[in-house]
Write a structure and sequence with these properties.
By secondary structure, the protein is mainly beta. Helices cover 2% and strands 26% of the residues. Among the domains are: 86 residues, no CATH class; 153 residues, Galactose-binding domain-like (Jelly Rolls, Sandwich); 57 residues, Tie2 ligand-binding domain superfamily (Tie2 ligand-binding domain fold, Beta Complex), CATH 2.170.300.10; 160 residues, no CATH class. The radius of gyration is 63 Å and the shape is elongated.
Length: 730
């Protein structure tokens, strides 16, 4: 068959073309014309109208070259504009639709459509026009290529009949037959007589329905007598007339089609329907494993799939020409062949040897299929090793299990057909369970359970509880910012970084305000606050906020001030309540007393921090100064001595008392006696006059923190006389 697609808008130039097939490289004469003797003319367009731009032409011939030729006269140029040319054929020795038939011609090839040999004569053991029917002669000798008859009538074992074409398993041989119409002497019974003769010539061995009337439908049936188990149906149609076979149907039914064709066929089992597009082979061997009593051959016109450009094909009349129909039942277990004369080959068994055993170590019993040595090959299981592995099993005897997520696995190798393992499984065959502390698809996820392993599928810990630094249902989520420890329930308060989610130690040292400790998770206590709790608040009535240092209940202790009560007040600016205590601490170092003649001076270096100090007013004493390294005069001694005063603005009175001659107007002297109220405000003036006797006693609060008591230390001694003393201006 040759298909041609010409230029769509210029089919006029296609008019009058010729199509040749040749084995010559050049068919042209010197004048440019074609030498038709050198090629086979497949087609010549001689129509009066314009040809279609799509052409399909049958050309049943062998050749190497396809030639498209055209000619013009009256000085008109011949032009060819081919868009596509397709040449369909079969390799040498094959024919029919999809080249599915094989011809065994003695010499040469055969027609690619019909299979008819180019030169009559078949290879030994074959018969028919296409040499595609096998002879069944004893000893394998040649049979008559027209009738199939064997020399001396000696048929091969298991075969009988005039053409040695009747087998023991043929259920249709000699059974009752019917057909829709009959032409001449070619009745329906000729399809089951076991005779293969010269096609149609009298007396003929083929059936023939009426070709003359208009019969859009035709049918033929054979009655097997009882319901039989059918395996195969073989059909030999009239050779060279397979165009009438085109579009046929083959049914098996339990009812005769003669009663009501449409009702019967609607319930019958359809074994086969020819659907083209080429012509069917005149020899058909069709599998139809079904039980039934009637075998029905049916055809209609026009066919569902009509052949194109086939000579003699008629669209209006259906004709049936069957030369032989064989309905083959089952052979006994262990046997096969048309006459059940062949033993099953290796690794096959059962009726017709249609089953296969897959024994690993031996062959199987031809009848039962049981392995002679137990054990199946990969992918198979069962007593006969004929059951394929299913439902995620694989390997020898299907003893292994694959856990593929998206498909089953290869029964032999176990590899998933669609990649991907189920949760909890890993490996090439998805048969390896997740190892310790892994889970999910391909075991790619990790659980961090503290007390057990986790479920390989879900990742949930078998015993609840996560390792340090992990949290979540599967213990696979690392602790988030500023959390650490088991299940991430602890919080670190690092100032400059996150902390180690396992230990809680800050990656960069330093805690936030209000926190201290190795993991910055201990809140400040006991009047401490700030970063690392390194600051102290002196709240009078409560603790302070660990972060800001602000007292929870307002009010600072005596001697402290500020927003966080952490700023010490200097003694000169404090509000002293001199009833019992003053807010003073003096750390005193007494140096040396220097005397020259009757003049002596004593220098005292004084260091102080504000603390509680007790004053004993029974022994008057001057408080002269509270700055560092201030010389203090000896104001009195038991003997009369020359004394030196250190007045800021004048000399002293020179009468034995240390008293400045003048005092600034801005300063008011304050006299304190035994009876004086110590609650006076001393913050405006540094001049203090004390009247009375005794010692000034200083107690040091610092010693109480060390758990011991320090004795009172006298500053100056004044004897027993009552004197008035004063201090210089500050």
């Amino acid at each position: 068959m040759i298909n041609i697609t010409y230029r769509h808008h210029d089919a006029r130039r296609l008019q009058g073309y010729s199509l040749y097939v040749t084995n010559n490289t050049d068919m042209t004469r010197p004048d440019g014309s074609i030498n038709e003797q050198d090629g086979h003319l497949c087609y010549h367009d001689n129509g009066s109208g314009l040809p279609t731009f799509n052409q399909t032409r049958q050309c049943h011939v062998k050749g190497r070259y396809v030639v498209f030729y055209n000619i013009r006269s009256n000085r008109e140029d011949a032009l060819i504009e081919l868009c596509e040319v397709q040449v369909y054929g079969c390799p040498f020795g094959q024919f029919g639709y999809n080249c599915g038939g094989t011809c065994h011609c003695m010499t040469g090839g055969c027609d690619p459509d019909t299979g008819q040999c180019d030169v009559k004569g078949c290879q030994t053991g074959w018969m028919g026009l296409s040499c595609s029917l096998q002879c069944h002669c004893d000893g394998g000798v040649a049979c008559d290529i027209d009738t199939g008859a064997c020399p001396g009538g000696r048929c091969q074992s298991g075969w009988s009949g005039q053409s040695c074409f009747v087998s023991r398993r043929n259920l249709a041989y000699g059974k009752p037959t019917r057909q829709s119409t009959t032409y001449s002497i070619y009745g329906a019974y000729k399809a089951v007589d076991g005779v293969i003769s010269k096609d149609f010539e009298p007396p003929g061995s083929c059936t023939h329905t009426d070709p003359n009337g208009r019969h859009p439908e035709a049918w033929w049936q054979v009655d097997l007598g009882t319901v039989q188990l059918i395996r195969t149906i073989n059909i030999v149609y009239r050779q060279l007339y397979n165009f009438r076979m085109s579009g046929f149907y083959l049914y098996v039914s339990n009812s005769s089609v003669a009663h009501n064709i449409y009702q019967v066929l609607s319930k019958a089992h359809l074994c086969y329907h020819d659907h083209g597009p080429g012509l069917p082979s005149y020899i058909q061997s069709l599998s139809c494993p079904v039980s039934g009593r009637y075998v029905i051959f049916y055809n209609k016109r026009p066919a569902d799939y009509e052949p194109k450009d086939v000579k003699y094909y008629i669209k209006t009349s259906a004709v049936i020409e069957l030369c032989e129909v064989q309905v083959l039942g089952e052979c006994p277990p262990g046997r096969k062949g048309i006459s059940c004369d062949q033993a099953c080959t290796s690794y096959t068994f059962g009726r017709d040897c249609t089953q296969t055993c897959h024994c690993a170590n031996s062959d199987c019993d031809r009848r039962t299929g049981v392995c002679k040595v137990p054990g199946c090959t990969e992918e198979w299981k069962g007593q006969t090793c004929s059951q394929a592995c299913i439902n995620h099993t694989f390997g020898q005897d299907c003893t292994h299990t694959c856990h593929c997520a998206n498909s089953d696995c290869d029964g032999r190798t176990g590899v998933c057909k669609v990649p991907g393992c189920m949760e909890g499984w890993d490996g090439r065959t998805c048969s390896q369970v997740c190892t310790y502390h892994t889970f999910g698809r391909y075991c790619a996820q990790t659980c961090h359970c503290a007390n057990s392993d986790c479920d390989g599928r879900t990742g949930i810990c078998k015993v609840p509880g996560c390792m340090e630094g992990w949290e979540g249902r599967t213990c696979s989520q690392a602790c988030t910012y500023h959390t650490f420890g088991r299940d991430c329930v602890q919080t670190c308060h690092c100032a400059n970084s996150d902390c180690d989610w396992r230990t809680g130690i800050c990656n960069v040292p330093g805690c936030m305000e209000g926190w201290e400790g190795r993991t910055c998770s201990q809140v400040c206590t006991n009047h401490t606050f700030g970063r690392d709790c390194n600051k102290t608040c002196h709240c009078a009535n409560s603790d302070c906020d660990a972060r800001t240092g602000i007292c929870n209940v307002p009010g600072c202790m005596e001697g402290w001030e500020g927003r966080t009560c952490s700023q010490a007040l200097p003694i000169t600016h404090s509000r002293l309540k001199l009833k019992t205590y003053c807010v003073i601490v003096l750390t005193l170092t007494v140096t040396v007393i220097l005397c020259k003649g009757q003049s002596c001076e004593m220098y005292i270096r004084m260091y102080y921090r504000i603390r509680h100090v007790k004053l004993d007013l029974r022994h008057p004493v001057p408080i002269t100064s509270f700055t560092d390294e201030t010389p203090v005069p000896i104001t009195h001694s038991d003997e009369t001595v020359n004394q030196t005063c250190h007045c800021a603005n004048s000399d002293c009175d020179g009468k034995g008392l240390v008293a400045c001659k003048s005092t600034p107007d801005t300063c008011t002297n304050h006299h304190i006696s035994d009876e004086t109220d110590c609650s006076q405000d001393l913050s405006l003036c540094s001049t203090l006059t004390v009247t009375g006797k005794g010692w000034c006693m200083l107690n040091y609060p610092d010693v109480w923190r060390n758990g011991r008591m320090v004795k009172s230390v006298p500053i100056t001694h004044f004897g027993t006389s009552t004197v008035a003393q004063s201090c210089p201006l500050c």
